[in-house]
């Protein structure tokens, strides 16, 4: 899943693709680099970000979604918490609703998702972007996040969303310390064992700087991003959401080739 933020203030690429023309050009670059899915967002959810209205999100994202849909038949995701923006996106050609609030932003969200018959990504976030990093606490972050997401999936299903259309995202960086983030990545198998597909989204995130203080700028975090994507895939993630599509596609292809070769190697005869 290639990330395309058409915002002025996203943490990594804010302002770079804010026009419909530059957004379309970046979308086509991501597709050419091997993206299977495009995730287009019009509101920053970085720590401390201020909310924007649905009208602003729609004005930012819909021209890009429509332009991409006219040129590409692959799946397009709208990264929004607002049902109004999700409706507009589906009308323009999107087929996936990626919601950082797991359909809790509006009481209508689960019913809207069911009515749209779209795929849904349910993400865990503690609090909301402006305050989510203020002393987040868990007793057992893997168990609590997994239980929350399964409960949200059941709410979505009760509203009419088909189970096969639901993907779960543990929300690395959304109301978590570095220790919480590492535990969630290491414990991703627990979430995968729920039977729902899992998305891992940790591309270029601050946790990489916490481990490597030299990675001050988001663009300096490619190595850490690749390490997380490879580890997540090994632990059962169905989707990795990334900025650096070409490098991630290559890394996953090499990992798959090594795994295939390993399975074909006959074990050594101890005798």
Per DSSP, the total helix count is: 10
**What CATH architecture do you see?**
Alpha-Beta Barrel
Query: Biggest β-sheet: count, sense, barrel?
Result: 6 strands, parallel
Name the beta content range: 5-15%
Written as H for each helix and E for each strand, in order along the chain, the element string is EHEHEHEHEHEHHEHHEH
Please tell me the total number of domains: 1
Strand order of the largest sheet: 1-2-3-4-5-6
CATH superfamily: Dihydropteroate synthase-like
Number of strands: 8
Overall pLDDT confidence: 92
CATH class: Alpha Beta
Radius of gyration: 18 Å
The oligomeric state of the chains shown is single chain
**CATH topology heading:** TIM Barrel
Structural class per helix/strand content? alpha/beta
In short:
This protein has about 270 residues and is an alpha/beta fold. The protein has helices at about 20-30, 55-70, 85-90, 110-115, 140-160, 180-185, 190, 205-210, 220-235, 245-265; strands spanning about 1-5, 40, 75-80, 95-100, 120-125, 165-170, 200, 240.
Describe the structure.
By secondary structure, the protein is α/β, with parallel strands linked by helices. The protein has one domain (2-259): Alpha-Beta Barrel (TIM Barrel), CATH 3.20.20.20. Helices cover 45% and strands 11% of the residues. The protein has a six-stranded parallel β-sheet, covered by helices on one side. A two-stranded parallel ribbon has the order 7-8. The longest helix has 20 residues, at 245-264.
């Amino acid at each position: 899943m290639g990330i395309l933020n058409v915002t002025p203030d996203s943490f990594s690429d804010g302002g770079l693709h804010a026009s419909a023309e530059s957004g379309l050009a970046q979308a086509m670059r991501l597709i050419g680099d091997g993206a299977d899915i495009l995730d287009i967002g019009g509101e920053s959810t970085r720590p401390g970000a201020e909310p924007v209205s649905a009208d602003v999100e729609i004005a930012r994202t819909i021209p890009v979604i429509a332009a991409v849909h006219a040129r590409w038949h692959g799946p397009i995701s709208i990264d929004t918490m607002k049902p109004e923006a999700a409706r507009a996106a589906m009308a323009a050609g999107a087929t996936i609703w990626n919601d950082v609030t797991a359909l809790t932003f509006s009481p209508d969200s689960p019913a809207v998702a069911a009515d749209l018959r779209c795929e849904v990504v349910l993400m865990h976030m503690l609090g909301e972007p402006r305050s989510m990093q203020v002393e987040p606490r868990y007793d057992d972050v893997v168990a609590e996040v997994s239980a929350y997401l399964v409960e949200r999936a059941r709410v979505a299903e009760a509203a009419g969303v088909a189970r096969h259309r639901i993907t779960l995202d543990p929300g690395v960086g959304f109301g978590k310390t570095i220790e919480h983030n590492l535990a969630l990545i290491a414990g991703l198998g627990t979430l995968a064992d729920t039977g729902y597909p899992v998305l891992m989204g940790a591309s270029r995130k601050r946790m990489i700087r916490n481990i490597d203080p030299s990675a001050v700028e988001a663009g300096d975090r490619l190595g850490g991003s690749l390490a997380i994507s490879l580890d997540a895939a090994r632990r059962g993630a169905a989707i990795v959401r990334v900025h650096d599509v070409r490098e991630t596609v290559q890394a996953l292809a090499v990992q798959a080739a090594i795994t295939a070769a390993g399975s074909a190697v006959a074990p050594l005869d101890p005798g």
